[in-house]
Amino acid sequence: xxxxxREVIIYSMTAGDLDYMTEMGDFLYNPNKRNVAFSxxxxxxxxxxxxxxxxxxxxxxxxIHDMISNSSVTVL
Length: 76
Hints:
- This protein is of the alpha+beta class.
- Helix content is 45%, strand content 20%.
């Protein structure tokens, strides 16, 4: 998708194992990769992930904490 945009972007932040997420966090939750993916959405961005695990990871990755704490984000 280099340099391209789409109306809707679905971004997966899922992983089944919290230990794996912790071990690979620097790669999985790199803020630069996330920023590029998020900026490709023209009208809607859908983020799929385990909110409980994302909150746990948010303690180490401030940008994840900020993202799920943002009042404009709807958590289902």
